[in-house]
Task: structure prediction
Amino acid sequence: MTLQERVWQRRNRLRNRFSSLASRELRERPAPTAAPRRKATLADVAERAGVATSTASRALNGHAGLAPATRAAVEDAAAQLNFQPSALARSLRTQQTFTVGFVVPDVSSPFYAAALQGAQGRLEQAGYRVMLMDANQDIDRELAALETLLSHQVDGLLVASAGVPPALFESALSASATPTIFFDGVIEGMGDGAVILDNERGIELLIAHLIEHGHERIGFLAGSQRESAGAARLRAFYRCMRDHGMTPDGGHVKVCAWAIADGRRAGLELLADAVPATAVLASSAELALGFMSAAAARGARIPHDVALVAFDDPYFGDLLEPSLTAVAYDPRLIGAAAAELLVDAIRSGSDSREVRIPVTLVRRRSCGCRAEAAR
Result:
């Protein structure tokens, strides 16, 4: 190989080596990142729609006095730009947070879950978000929940109280003019309105039905007397029994907490009585389930040995064995009605009102009704 050929060979080797290094560097070099997409502003919407920023703001906030074509142009521009209004800016401008506190004694209860659904639907229509707090059947936790919500400057409160004394509740809200609506668990003399069940009518229906079946020794699982609903149902029980010429046996009335385990303990006591009740009225679905557990443990057959009815018709009531005779209502209506009262109180400071939700009797087999007669 001549000298010139050896020079060309070395030059080609160097060229190939540099080409390889350059290709590797291009492969390993990270791809350039796209610039973050800027969030659309109200000014962007106004520019796209061809209107002033103030006009775009009025259109998006539902103010009257705008031409339909202008409003439509602004709404179309907002949709095209995926414009999301700033909640913080809105709060600073209006001095409102557009949030509502929702306080319940037991967040796991189907009743309160359904009430929340009803309330949230109405509140979202009115432009409010919900902050949910669980008091866990504890007065101190309920007061702490109220303090937390007020510190977040909620515009209103929906409260099912676990039985906070009026003086403590008033003290908790003393520095606040926050509108408050109670539902189910009411604190007498407090708040801007309340939504309650027709507890008296429900107890009347259940006792009258048991009497139709021939029962006179009727036991009652009364629930907590710290809460307004439990106290109202116990008063109604005594009154209805007197109205029918009967005096309840003191040993057949059990005051207890609301959990299934409490219903079971109270049920075992009722069934152990020397002269047991022939029928039992449970003040809630959970207490009814507890009594069914106690009856199974004692070998007492429902309804052959003891009839059972309940205030509260759970969604699974028809699936129980035997199916549960109960007073029924739609808890979503309670939440929706409470939310409606609260929105009115926030916007117009309307006078305090009380809404009473009606109840109906659902006949099934736990009371002794035959399957074909159950409704």
Q: What stands out?
A: The first strand starts at residue 99 and ends at 104. The CA atoms of residues 133 and 148 lie 9 Å apart. DSSP finds 13 helices and twelve strands in the chain. The mean pLDDT is 87.
